[in-house]
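Shipment paperwork, digital attachment
Item: protein structure file
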Amino acid sequence: MANVKVEVLDAVVDGHGEGETIEIDERSAKHLESIGYVRVKNDAPDGTGEKASSAAKKPASKKRTTKK
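Attachment content:
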C-alpha cells in the first residue's frame, strides 16, 4: 500500500501536532481524514494541489468474425 502525505489538523497524530505534514499509509490516511484529524495533500505535477486524472477508458471492442 502506498504512503500519502497528510496535513495534521486540530489533533496529534503519531506524535506530530497541528499544521505538520507527515507521510502515512493510505488506509490510515483515509480513516483519519474521515474523522477530521488530517487532510490529505495531493501533490500534482501541475501545482494545483489536485491529483492528475488518467485518461478516460474506452469500452472493450467486440470481437468480429469474418464471413467466408
